[in-house]
Each structure stands twice: as structure tokens, then as C-alpha cells.
Amino acid sequence: MTTRTPGAQTGIPPSGSHGGDGARVAAALGIDPASMIDLSASMNPFAPDVAALLADLLRRAGSAVHRYPDPTGATIALADAIGADADQLVLTNGGAEAIALTAAHLRVGNVIEPEFSLYRRHLTAVDPAAARWRSNPSNPLGQLAAPEDTAGVWDEAFYPIATGRWTRGDAGAWQLGSLTKLWNCPGLRLGYVIAPTADEAHAIRHRQPRWSVNGLALAALPELLAVTDLPSWSAQINTLRHGFATALRGVGFHVTDTDSNWLLVHHANLRVTLAGHGVLVRDCSTFGLAGVHRVALPPPHHFDRVLEAFASVHAR
Fold this sequence. Notes:
Elements: H1 22-29, E1 37-39, H2 50-61, H3 72-82, E2 89-92, H4 94-106, E3 108-109, H5 118-122, E4 125-126, E5 133-135, E6 153-155, H6 159-163, E7 174-178, H7 179-183, E8 191-194, H8 198-207, H9 215-226, H10 230-250, E9 254-256, E10 262-266, H11 270-275, E11 279-283, E12 292-296, H12 303-315
Parallel strand pairs: 1-11, 3-4, 5-6, 6-7
Antiparallel strand pairs: 2-8, 7-8, 9-10, 10-12, 11-12
Helix pairs in contact: 2-9, 3-9
């Protein structure tokens, strides 16, 4: 891995509205994308090896890619795991499609900033009098909602990671999920909508393009459920987060802890300077939080390298 000088970092593209742009930044730096540790998208650092599972699945059930996909079995499997009614659950092509489909159905919602940008992008209108769209834990602040808090739409992309449970299960509310985050498989694309009623779930299915979720993802879903351990993952993430926060403070950074699988680090221009050391973080200026960066927890095998990069930045 090549460490770049500050003068070589000026061509780094600005942060996008979502994160996960490690390949784009690596291309701008002229380094191998595989050498970039991308902490701009917050994934489960203890997720199973999805690539290995898919390779084995293709050997055993490669015919899935030669048929039009049928989501019925995978839908029932996920509903059983969550404890939801399968008639109310719709599998989607990632959490982003879950948001887009629900927003197109509801059309109007209330969004209180700072909040995940895809809600405003897909809602027809934002109205303070409408039902609130709310990420839980909040993105980017990372705080869990209080038990007495309410929302019309709960985006629970990070809820299982933070709590060790699938959902709050609020009756009458929409619940959106991202298996992409839980299983660290952003290229596979798996998410879901749990609608308040079976009729509203039917409306979402009617709006969704046919065969939206590919056959390989559907075949992998039950096998990934079989190796999912939410309580253990959540406990490990809690331990890793506290250790990471302590280590960053130890090398001089101002850190705000969260309830989720990332930290907020306060430091000007951190994204650009860290990128020169092969580590990418999420600049929160697009959330209106200048000088704040959302930093996903690194997998344990990358912990020392990430901490070394942070220490080098602070020493400058």
C-alpha cells in the first residue's frame, strides 16, 4: 500500500450522498481498490463470508441463475426469522428499493434532519404534518430511538446490528430493513419492507418490478439466515466500538460514541487526509455536519492498520 503525501490527495472526489465509494476514490488515487479500507459505508464487521457461501451455492445450486426467480420460499424464511407475517413482508433489491417503493406508495412524509438522504429523494413531498420517516438507530447520529418514540416509517437498516433483535415491531408502522448491511453484501442487494397490513404489502408488490430480487440472492437468503447470530454480533460490535473509540481518543481524536456500528469523529478534512493512507470515511457535511465524519467499525483484522492511519493523520 502506497502512502500519499497531502499534495497528492487533491484529486480525491468529494463524498457522495451515501458512502461506499471506495473504488472511485482508489481510482482517483491510482491504487488498487482492494487495498482501500472503505469505512464510509457501515457494514457488519462480523458478517459471514458471503463470497465463499455464494461460490459454494453456485456449485450446488447454480441452476438458480437459469430460472426466473420466485421469492416465495425466501420470503417465508425471513418472515419466520423476524417473527412477521409473510403476507406483510416484501423482499426488495436492497434497502434502497425498500425506501423507494414505500415512498412512492405513501408519497408524503415528514423528515427531520439530519437524516438519511434517500427519504427526501424518493418522497413526492416533505410535510411536517405527515407521518415521520425515521432511521433507527439514526443515520448519521447513530442513536437508538427511545421506547416511547413513534414514527410512521421506521428504517431499521442498522437496528439488528445495534440491538441483537430484528425489529422494534411497532404495530401500524412500516418497517424497512437492509440485509446488505447485516451480511456485508452491498453487491448482492437484499432488503425488505414489512407493511402494516397485507393489503399494503400487496400494493408494494404490485408497484415493484417483476423479478426485482435475483435468484442467487433468494437462494442465499435461507443459508445466510442459518449462520446469523444477532445477539452475538451485536455484543461483539458493542465491544469493538468501545475499543475503537478508546483507541482513537488515545491518539488525540475527538470522538462521539453511538449505539450502532460506527463512530462520529470530529476533525477537519479527515476524509481527504485518511484516503492518502488507504482508509476512506464518510464526510458528514452533506448531512449539514461540517467537520464531522462517520467512521464505520473496521473488521478486527484491519484494526491496527486503520488506527495507524488515524495516528499518522493526527501527527501531521
